[in-house]
Design brief:
Mean pLDDT of chain A: 94
Structural class of chain A: alpha+beta
Largest interface: A-B, 25 and 26 residues
Distance between the termini of chain A: 19 Å
Number of helices of chain A: 3
Helix content of chain B: 10-25%
Order of helices and strands of chain A: HEEEEHEEHE
Structural class of chain B: alpha+beta
Number of domains of chain A: 1
CATH architecture of chain A: Roll
Distance between the termini of chain B: 14 Å
CATH superfamily of chain A: Electron Transport, Fmn-binding Protein, Chain A
CATH superfamily of chain B: Electron Transport, Fmn-binding Protein, Chain A
Shape of chain B: globular
CATH topology of chain A: Pnp Oxidase, Chain A
Strand order of the largest sheet of chain A: 2-1-5-6-7-4-3
Shape of chain A: globular
Radius of gyration of chain B: 15 Å
Strand content of chain B: 35-45%
Number of strands of chain B: 8
Strand content of chain A: 35-45%
Number of domains of chain B: 1
Order of helices and strands of chain B: EHEEEEHEEHE
Radius of gyration of chain A: 14 Å
CATH class of chain B: Mainly Beta
Mean pLDDT of chain B: 92
Oligomer: heterodimer
Number of helices of chain B: 3
Low-confidence stretches of chain B: none
C-alpha cells in the first residue's frame, strides 16, 4: 500500500533539485543516475525515453529507490523506496516541458518525441527529513 | 556495458569533481535485492575511493554481503554532468582512533568529527573503481 508522505516530506519534495534513482539490472548490479522529478498527489513522477536503462529495469522489477538531497545542506536528505505503478506516453512532451519549467524556468529545448512519464508510489521513507527510523 | 570506460585512471573531469567536498551517493543491495541509496562523505586518493561508516549501519553490511557498489557524483552546478562509477569493495579497515573519519570531517565541515557514541565503531571502506559511465567520462 502506498505510503502517505508526511507534511515535512510534502514540503521537501517541492524544492528543486534532481532525484538520484537506483534500479536493479538483470545481473543484480545497480544503475544510479540523476533525473528530474516532481511529487504530485503523493506520487513521484519522472520522465525519460523508452530506451533508458532504468525504464527497462523497472519493467522487469518495478522497485525503485530515490535519493533526495538538499544540495545546499547535505544533512537534509530522504531516501524513498517505491514502486513503478504506472507509465504512459508523453505525447507532445507536455510533461517533460512541465518539468523543464520546474527546473529551468523555461520550455524544454530538446526533442519532445518518444518520451514517457512514470508514476512511482512511495512505500517507505528513511532519512533526516522525517527523522531516522 | 556500452559506453563504459575502465576506471584504471579516472578522467581529469571526474578527479576535479571528486576533489570538491560534495557528497557521493552510493547504491548497495539489500538481502531482498532492493536498492539502498545513501549520501556519504568520501575521498579519492591513490586511485581508490575511501569511505567511512559506523559498523552498525546497514550500507556497510550490505557491502560486505555483496561487494559491488554503484556510486554517483553529480556536478552541483550542472546536474546533467555526472559520473556513475561502478566499483568493488576491496578492503575493510578498522578506524579505532577515528583518524580517517576526522580527516573526512575536516574535508567537509572544517572540524574534527563529533565524539563517538559509547558503542560506535568506525570502519574505513576502500573501493576500487571499475567502470565509469555518464556525462563526465
Amino acid at each position: 500500500m502506498a505510503l502517505e508522505l508526511s507534511p515535512k516530506m510534502q514540503a521537501f519534495t517541492q524544492e528543486v533539485f534532481p532525484a538520484f534513482i537506483g534500479t536493479a539490472r538483470k545481473n543484480g548490479s545497480v544503475e544510479l543516475v540523476p533525473v528530474w522529478f516532481e511529487q504530485k498527489d503523493g506520487s513521484f513522477w519522472i520522465n525519460g525515453g523508452t530506451n533508458r536503462g532504468w525504464f527497462k529495469h523497472l519493467q522487469r522489477d518495478p522497485r525503485i529507490t530515490l535519493l533526495l538531497v538538499d544540495p545546499k545542506q547535505m544533512f537534509r536528505w530522504a531516501q524513498v523506496e517505491g514502486r513503478m505503478v504506472n507509465w504512459a506516453e508523453d505525447p507532445g512532451g507536455e510533461h517533460i516541458n512541465h518539468l523543464s519549467h520546474r527546473y529551468l524556468g523555461h520550455d524544454y529545448q530538446n526533442p519532445r518525441t518518444g518520451r514517457i512519464k512514470i508514476q512511482i508510489e512511495p512505500l517507505r521513507v528513511i532519512g533526516s527529513i522525517d527523522g531516522w527510523r | 556495458m556500452a559506453g563504459a570506460k575502465m576506471a584504471s585512471a579516472l578522467s581529469p573531469a571526474v578527479q576535479k569533481l571528486a576533489a570538491m567536498p560534495i557528497l557521493l551517493t552510493i547504491a548497495t543491495k539489500r538481502a531482498d535485492g532492493s536498492v539502498q541509496l545513501n549520501p556519504v562523505w568520501f575521498e579519492l586518493r591513490d586511485g581508490f575511493i575511501w569511505l567511512n561508516s559506523n559498523t552498525s549501519r546497514t550500507w556497510p553490511k550490505n557491502l560486505q554481503r555483496d561487494r559491488d557498489v554503484t556510486m554517483l557524483l553529480v556536478d552541483p552546478k550542472v546536474p546533467d554532468r555526472y559520473a556513475q562509477i561502478h566499483g568493488r569493495l576491496v578492503s575493510l579497515i578498522p578506524d579505532p582512533q577515528h583518524e580517517f573519519i576526522d580527516r573526512l570531517a575536516e574535508r567537509y565541515t572544517g572540524k574534527k568529527f563529533r565524539d563517538l557514541e559509547p558503542d560506535e565503531h568506525r570502519i574505513t571502506l576502500k573501493i576500487q573503481p571499475v567502470t565509469v559511465t555518464g556525462a563526465l567520462i
